[in-house]
Amino acid sequence: MLKKALYGLLLIALLAAPLLGVYPLFLMKVLCYALFAAAFNLLIGYTGLLSFGHAAFLGLAGYTTGYAIQTLGLSPELGLLAGVAASLLLGLVMGLLAIRRQGIYFAMITLALAQLLYFVFLQAPFTKGEDGLQGIPRGKLFGLLDLSHDLTLYYVMACVMVLAFLLIVRIVHSPFGQILTAIKENEPRAISLGYDTDRFKLLVFILSAGLAGLAGSLKALVLGFETLGDAYWTTSGLVILMTLVGGMGTLLGPLVGAFLIIALEDRLGDIGQMLASLTGVSWFASLGESVTIVIGLIFIVCVLLFRRGIVGEIVARIKPLRV
Amino acid sequence: MDIFGIPLQALLSQLLLGLVNGSFYAILSLGLAVIFGLLNVVNFAHGATFMLGAMVTWMGFSYFGIGYWPMLILSPLVVGLFGIVLERGLLRWIYKIDQLYGLLLTFGLTLVIEGLFRSIYGSSGQPYDVPALLSGATNLGFMYLPNYRAWVVLASLTVCFSTWFVIEKTKLGAYLRAGTENPKLVGAFGINVPLMVMLTYAFGMGLAAFAGVLAAPVIQISPLMGQPMIITVFAVVVIGGMGSIMGSILTGLMLGVVEGLTRVFYPEASATVVFVIMVLVLLVKPAGLFGKEK
Question: Which ipTM did the prediction report?
Answer without folding.
Answer: 0.89
